[in-house]
């Protein structure tokens, strides 16, 4: 019985040490973002271009003051604000008519790590469900066609994350734990023989 408990403890320790990676916010400092709206580069207006159309107006970096949104759609229905901690806030800038609203954000090679997840963080001000997709390791997609907005100028947010390894104990730490478990087992064995 005692051997079984000790073995179960060792197996649990091994499982915990080999647990899968956890998602952590992806830092976006220094990111350059290229965006399209319903498949069109001309459909997005970026912060760096002063939200005016023209070649390259769909490419921007993060607003260093974090006051303005990084992108507006050319029909001014939506605003997109990226935070340095990987949070994306989507604003409805007006009453949204029924239609197709598909957005892609591509970070190219400007990220320090690959994107591994894109998940909804807060949707209290909307009905329906935005379709979030991870296109590849540096691009995400949004489809807002099924979203109903509970008022004008409301938001929802989503988190861009990367996998970060969980804290794995150093081999010396594992050896110390195993030595402690072996010491407890030996101590119990001696007590059993005496008693």
Automatic annotation (TrEMBL):
Pfam family, any one: PEP-CTERM
Protein name: PEP-CTERM sorting domain-containing protein
Signal peptide: 1-23
Tree of life domain: Bacteria
Iron as UniProt keyword: no
Domain annotation Ice-binding protein C-terminal: ranges: 167-189
Keywords: Signal
InterPro entries: Ice-binding_C
Claim: Signal is one of the keywords in the record: yes
Organism the protein comes from: Massilia horti
């Amino acid at each position: 019985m005692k051997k079984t408990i000790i073995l179960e403890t060792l197996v649990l320790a091994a499982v915990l040490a080999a647990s899968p990676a956890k998602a952590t916010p992806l830092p976006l400092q220094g990111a350059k973002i290229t965006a399209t709206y319903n498949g069109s580069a001309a459909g997005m207006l970026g912060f760096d271009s002063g939200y005016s159309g023209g070649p390259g107006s769909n490419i921007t970096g993060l607003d260093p003051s974090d006051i303005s949104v990084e992108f507006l759609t050319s029909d001014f229905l939506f605003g997109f604000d990226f935070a340095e901690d990987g949070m994306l806030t989507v604003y409805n800038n007006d009453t949204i008519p029924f239609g197709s609203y598909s957005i892609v954000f591509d970070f190219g090679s400007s990220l320090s790590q690959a994107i591994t997840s894109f998940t909804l963080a807060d949707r209290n001000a909307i009905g329906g469900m935005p379709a979030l997709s991870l296109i590849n390791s540096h691009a995400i997609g949004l489809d807002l066609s099924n979203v109903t907005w509970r008022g004008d100028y409301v938001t929802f947010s989503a988190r861009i994350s990367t996998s970060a390894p969980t804290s794995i104990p150093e081999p010396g730490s594992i050896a110390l734990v195993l030595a402690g478990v072996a010491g407890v087992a030996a101590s119990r064995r001696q007590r059993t023989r005496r008693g």
